[in-house]
């Protein structure tokens, strides 16, 4: 991965290169920001820049032996840590899923947990970085660098380190070998063990703008430009989610279908249908449910804008606009805030390990009342 392969974030790229070029690279660097902002791609590009034998013009060369090894995720002195799931209750490390992770990264550089769970073949699991992973990396760091200038550990989603794993790594992060660097990324810095967090130099990676996301979607998929724009406005700068919505099993259309069934069932007060709807949604996995509630918030806002007579501000796809022509009159100043709050609470409850089916059914019942205001 080279910096030139990553869209945007030019200021951050320059800053990372300057840290290396000026000899100020910290032994523990944390890139923090929302999911889908290319943090891990930046971490990979930085690791390659550190190891490159011929870096110039603010990037690695891409052709030296170290760069070629990095491109294949096969560099002897670069180690990867990322969330995985236990297999048959046996100690499981990142290396166990190396093939899946290489395929996952090859799709696009915008790392989405929901997509990774599908590579793990367990959409309901809560992947984590286990203590066995920390033990394995510590063993490797105790050896001499073989082909690179330094040893580098690149960690995706540091917030998913189990406490035992974080405690294992704490000492070497506090007192690292002179030739060792940790490059960590996180979507949720508050979830990182404070003793680890306080010992990292931190760089905030902002989310992409809606236009940047739309351009990324258009570049990685075959969707129409207006669809790319509509998808971008629902994802809050998350390029990973936007690409998934555009390419992964027609996820965007599936979300619209779930939304229309929810609203029609709630308006008609068909409780039995809403129960079946909740069971179906709840069975789709935690991340898919969170994404759906975020999508609902987006459509509620868009329909409120349409209802108050500002269609020029809308960013709806053709299918969404067709449904919204008749639905938007039901979203008004008397219920729009409560509906948005309801969907925000739904996403938060799922993120806190709430029962997805119960959350979905409770949401549906409350919508019955809110649509009548």
3D structure, described in words:
By secondary structure, the chain is of the alpha/beta class. Helix content is 53%, strand content 7%. The chain has 17 helices and 5 strands. It has helices at 10-21, 39-51, 65-71, 98-107, 113-119, 131-141, 163-174, 194-197, 210-220, 225-232, 239-247, 251-267, 271-282, 286-307, 318-327, 336-351, 356-370; strands at 28-32, 78-81, 151-155, 180-186, 201-204. A 5-stranded parallel sheet has the order 2-3-4-1-5, sandwiched between helices. α9 (210-220) packs across α10 (225-232) and α16 (336-351) packs antiparallel against α17. It is elongated and about 70 Å long. The N and C termini lie far apart (53 Å).
Secondary structure blueprint with pairings:
Layout: H1 10-21, E1 28-32, H2 39-51, H3 65-71, E2 78-81, H4 98-107, H5 113-119, H6 131-141, E3 151-155, H7 163-174, E4 180-186, H8 194-197, E5 201-204, H9 210-220, H10 225-232, H11 239-247, H12 251-267, H13 271-282, H14 286-307, H15 318-327, H16 336-351, H17 356-370
Parallel strand pairs: 1-4, 1-5, 2-3, 3-4
């Amino acid at each position: 991965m080279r910096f030139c392969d990553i869209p945007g974030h030019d200021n951050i790229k320059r800053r990372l290169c300057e840290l290396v070029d000026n000899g100020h690279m910290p032994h523990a660097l944390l890139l923090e920001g929302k999911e889908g902002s290319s943090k891990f791609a930046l971490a990979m590009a930085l690791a390659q820049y550190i190891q490159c034998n011929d870096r110039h013009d603010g990037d690695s060369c891409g052709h030296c032996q170290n760069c070629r090894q990095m491109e294949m995720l096969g560099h002897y002195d670069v180690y990867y840590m990322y969330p995985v799931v236990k297999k048959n209750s046996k100690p499981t490390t990142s290396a166990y899923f190396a093939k899946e992770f290489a395929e996952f990264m090859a799709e696009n550089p915008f790392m989405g947990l929901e997509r990774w769970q599908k590579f793990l073949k367990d959409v309901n699991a809560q992947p984590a970085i286990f203590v066995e992973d920390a033990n394995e990396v510590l063993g490797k760091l105790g050896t001499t660098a073989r082909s690179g200038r330094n040893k580098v550990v690149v960690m995706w989603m540091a917030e998913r380190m189990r406490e035992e794993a974080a405690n294992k790594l704490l000492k070497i992060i506090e007192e690292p070998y002179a030739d060792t660097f940790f490059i960590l990324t996180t979507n949720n810095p508050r979830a990182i063990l404070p003793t680890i967090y306080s010992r990292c130099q931190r760089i905030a990676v902002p989310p992409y703008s809606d236009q940047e996301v739309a351009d990324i979607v258009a570049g990685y998929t075959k969707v129409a430009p207006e669809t790319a724009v509509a998808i971008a406005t629902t994802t809050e700068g998350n390029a990973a989610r936007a690409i998934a919505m555009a390419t992964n099993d027609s996820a965007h259309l599936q979300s619209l279908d779930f939304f229309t069934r929810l609203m029609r069932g709630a308006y008609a007060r068909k409780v039995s249908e809403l129960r079946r709807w909740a069971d179906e949604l709840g069975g789709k996995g935690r991340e898919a449910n969170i994404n759906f509630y975020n999508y609902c918030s987006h459509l509620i806002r868009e329909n409120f804008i349409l209802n108050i007579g500002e269609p020029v501000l809308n960013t709806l796809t053709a299918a969404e606009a067709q449904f919204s022509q008749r639905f938007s009159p039901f979203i008004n100043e008397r219920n729009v805030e409560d509906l948005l709050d309801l969907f925000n609470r739904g996403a938060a409850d799922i993120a806190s390990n709430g029962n997805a089916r119960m959350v979905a059914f409770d949401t549906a019942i409350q919508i019955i009342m809110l649509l009548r205001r």
